[in-house]
Amino acid sequence: MSDAPPAREEATATQTIPAMVLAATREREGTAVRYREGREWAELSYEDLGRRVREIARGLIALGVEPGDRVAIFSDTRVEWTLCDLGALCAGAVVAPIYHTNSSAEARHVLEDSGARVVFCGGRAQQGNVEEVREELSALEHVVLFEGGEPAVRDDEEEDGPEEAGDEDAGDDETDDDPAAPIALERLIQLGEEIDEGQVDERVDGLSGDDLFSLIYTSSTTGVAKGCMLTHANYQANREMIASVTDIDQDSVTQIGLPLAHTLTRMMQMVTLGAGAELAFWSGDRERLIEDLSEHRPTHYPAAPRVFEKIYNHARAELPPEEGAKGAVFAKLLDAGRRAQDAEHAGKRRGPLLALGHGLADNEILSDVRELFGDRLRMAITGAAPAPRHVLDFFYACGVLVLEGYGLTESSTAVSLNDPEDFRLGTVGRPLEGTEIALAEEDSEVLVRGPQVFRGYWNDEEATGEVLDEEGWLHTGDVGSFDEDGFLSITGRKKDILVTSSGENVPAPAIEARIAASRWVSNAVVYGNDKNYVVALVTIDEDERDALGEETGTRQQNRDLMARQMAEDDNVRLEIQEAVDEANRDLAQVLQVKKFAILDHDLAQQEDEITPTMKVKRDVVYERYRDVFEGLYENDEEH
Q: How far is CA 229 from CA 112, 136, 208, 455, 548, in A?
């Protein structure tokens, strides 16, 4: 192994997650959760949160859930997800998240492999997917719905009986007659009224750090998703590591919008609630993204790189173009912002000229960009894929700190993260406290060791042995490097390194990220194993397609036709060519993309082409579009 920077001070977990959250609900008086209810924003205080979580825990106990049983959550990001996550944990259960976009086959795999006894479904789509495969799930006993299902029984129905209430199918014994019938969340809560509250405390007190906290299934780009066994000690240790960097306190507001099945979102939920801060849910409408940020005014914002690209494109559309005299003035204003930020983070005073220039820049441009995030953002966090450097630099100059981190499901969430007080843009930061990171000597694979590293894969000792060695090192499959100050950069995945016919190694993800930095591009997939040169398959960003549709008055039902026309349009091709040319800049000749094809539709999770975390399933795409890739090499002797 190559030399690694020293780990920060050791981190130790002091409580289980449910014990931590219940303590916060007793000690904190402010708002715990803010969420959309119809057209209005609603709030739950920490006292309300504690009450609702306990009610759900009692309901699960009433259904027969025992400590260690698995409970799945199959839903989009909404307040019920959080309540049921915490409720299940307080019942001593192990939570298995399922992405709301997963197909019935993908959901079946998680439910079957985990042996989940209960699944919470967020909407009709998720309920339908479960019902489609339910007969194949021998362990699944109960389906609880956030929307619909057997309703709660009213007090007058309980007193008068079902016939007097006018509904001979209603009543307390309906669940007994058909225990497989889906029930509403409120009905679950009602069933729990028979359970003494002390049982919840007994369940929570009976948990230890060695008990399983969650089974999180990897959104694998190859093969079948595997369940990562994370203990309470794993997750709590990582929560404390991240909390020490993010510095979330009781006055903080964290806005979330990514799926809660995504480990970053769920972890930031726990960091926020553990600090007694406010957790703000987005409205669920991507058209309201900027509006949600402006209304919540978050201090912390975890999101995918693509979200920050969207906000960047929105901001740039309102600013002068890069070319011409106005572009030159804009560049100078942005440079003044960058130099002012450099001085501030270096602890230096701004000179008179810089102060004057920054004041002008702030008045003209920079403050408007900060307003897009609600004007009090202290730290935005991103990961899972490389963030385009020009996006990070732009926001930095405007006083918006978007910092990258690195981790994987097998490490709970993070192993490195840029600190707002000690960061380097373009890297994923230094190792978190108590975390060791080393690079394998033979291929620079990133190796990780620390208290957040998982126990192994559920029901798969062979796969566990492939990634966890005898010394406790987690072999991540990612390739990285350290700079002279110990900041880590991820350069690709071992499996994503293409080898050309001349034996040159091509880091596919790095090149793809460069192309996808264009607002016109949603996905780029490069190809070139055993070839003389590299080519790419590109898809058009749906937001750009829809924006063009709005401008041209194209109806929504005709947008697919428009996408096909755009793929053949010379002007669109010129835009993509510019993106490819920009990506090729500063790349060695052998790494440059020589040709590309534009797909007339985007890659889709439903077609098994991308994962729920938007990672391309390279093998699937290569096989499905092999004729397109190979066609780029036909009748060509130039290269």
A: 16, 24, 15, 6, 46
Mean pLDDT over 447-474 rounds to: 96
Who's near 135: CB < 8 A, 6+ residues apart?
none
Per residue in 234-278, pLDDT tens? 999 999 999 999 999 999 999 999 999 999 999 999 999 999 999
Strand ranges (E), 328-431:
379-382, 402-406, 416-417, 430-431
Structure tokens at 239: 């929560």
Place of tokens 């021998």: 138
Alpha carbons 249 and 253: distance in angstroms, whole number = 9
- Residue 11 in tokens: 């981190």
Q: Is residue 441 part of a domain?
A: no
- Gap between the Cα atoms of 158 and 252, Å rounded: 44
Q: Give the model confidence (pLDDT) of 107-135 as tens digits.
A: 999 999 999 999 999 999 999 999 999 99
More confident residue, 221 or 7: 221
3-class SS at 319?
coil
pLDDT band at 477 (very low <50, low <70, confident <90, very high): very high
pLDDT(548) > 80: no
Structure token pair of residue 471: 């010394």
At 23 the pLDDT is 94
Here the contacts of 562-567 (C-beta below 8 Å, separation 24 or greater) are 563/600, 563/601, 564/600, 564/601, 566/540, 566/598, 566/600, 567/540, 567/598, 567/599, 567/600
Last residue of one domain, picked from the residues 176, 207, 238: 207
- pTM for the full model? 0.84
Break the chain down into helix, strand, coil percent, rounded to 5: 45, 20, 35
Q: Is 596 helix (H, G, I), strand (E, B) or coil?
A: strand
Please state the domain count of the chain.
2
8 Å CB contact between 415 and 406: yes
- CATH classification of the domain holding 180: 3.40.50.12780
Pairing assessment for the beta strands 142-145 and 183-184 based on DSSP bridges: parallel
User: Are 455 and 231 within 8 A, CB to CB?
Assistant: yes
Task: Tell me the H-state helices in 38-168.
Answer: 46-62, 79-90, 104-114, 124-133, 155-160
Q: Give the span between the Cα atoms of 190 and 184, in whole angstroms.
A: 10
CA dist., res. 258 & res. 262, Å (int): 7
Q: Are strands 521-527 and 534-540 parallel, antiparallel or unpaired?
A: antiparallel
**Helix/strand/coil (H, E, C) string of 606-639?**
CCCCECCCCCECHHHHHHHCHHHHHHCCCCCCCC
Residue 457 within a domain: no
- Rounded-to-integer distance, Cα 609 and Cα 593, Å: 22
Bridge-based pairing state of the strands 212-217 and 227-231: antiparallel
Residue 329 lies in a domain: no
Once rounded to an integer, what is the mean pLDDT over residues 39-62?
A: 97
How long is the chain?
639
In the block, residue with structure tokens 């025992």: 66
Q: Which domain holds residue 104?
A: 17-207
CATH number of the domain encompassing residue 529: 3.30.300.30
CA distance 141 to 119: 9
Beta strands (DSSP E) in 291-378 are 300-302
Q: Which one of 207, 223, 244 terminates a domain?
A: 207
Q: Which of 395, 415, 418, 394 is nearest to 406 (CA)?
A: 415
Q: Do the domain assignments include residue 144?
A: yes
Tokens (6 digits) for 186? 């409120």
